[in-house]
Amino acid sequence: MSRPPFVADSIYLDHAAATPVRPEVVEAMAEATTAAFANPSSSHAAGRLAKQVLEESRERILAAAGSRSTASDRDRLVFTSGATEANRMAVLGMAGERSGIVATSARDHPGLRLAAQELACRGWRIAEIPLTPSGCLKTPAIGPLLGDPSEPRLVTVTTVCGQTGLLEDQAAIGRLAQAEPALLIHADATQAAAWLPLSFAESPFATLTLAAHKFGGPRGIGGLIIRGTTRISPLIPGPQELGLRGGTEAVALAAGFARAFELAVMDQAAEAVRVATLRSRFEAGMVAAAGAAGYETRVIGATASRAPQVSALGILGVDRQMLVLAADLAGVCLSTGTACSSGSGEPPAVLVALGVDPAMRTAVVRASFGRTTTSDDVAIAIERLAAVISRLRR
What we know:
single chain, Aspartate Aminotransferase, domain 1, Aspartate Aminotransferase, domain 2, seven-stranded mixed β-sheet, three-stranded antiparallel β-sheet, 12 strands, globular
């Protein structure tokens, strides 16, 4: 297992933001860059080769996601620039020119919430879905929130909360979909794809978002899987990407995306167990270190169902921004939450929704683990962070 070459001997515990690109992915992209350099919309031989690589990559990703690929209403994959664009394409594209009601929750990524807010400018009503104490959607509350079934209704679901790692109750979402067959459900699976089995064909989702940089793939590419029967309007009209996203496709990035996703799915079962063990070891070490310094600690969602790679830990009395900065100086990369909101002074909305004490909300930091994280990394991180916490106490 090779370590990523970055500054000095820092321990990287921010894999939920971005993961190191796998060597096999670099190789796949280099090959595609050399062989499939042409515009895939060109009709000459070089263009046809680029098109072939692009479409093969698309089919490999759909297969790895457990999508339907043989029926007449086969599922589709649209390549995007990342998860934010894919989420916007799903929410705004399924809404189209109509008006209706969209339901979101505090566990959704800020980019997804902003897409829902944009619908409000088009006349849509926004409903806030409350959360259970375990961080799941209160699915019995969704039906009454949605109101009239004769109007368009859209629900956003985040399968793994990027801030806390808390899992969504997909069985409950499935029951909701059965009870409300006309409901359009979009899933943001960016934090789930590398760690949890995925079968889009058997899921209740109309659309689903992926992002390659969350599982060892390149930055700058994501994808939206669309159920074959789902109608969606383009955000960027054009002849490319099934008419849903104009612009020349990034063939090499698509090839890297496909290779990274296949490898992540192949390693999923073993890596989930290994990384969950590292996370538990990290949390126990941090609780002990903070306790030795006289601090009260809390692991958010410690008794709930969580994905293996994320730990949200609060040390009461220690400001989260200060701890992250001090940890960085000590050679440990942590975060205050999702990368897109890490500079905000406001506590993550999901912590507010979960009823975390206001004083503790300002103290929660996120550590996230990945394929390149080792047992030694965790031991060194605990040692360095214990020293940081001790200094902050003094």
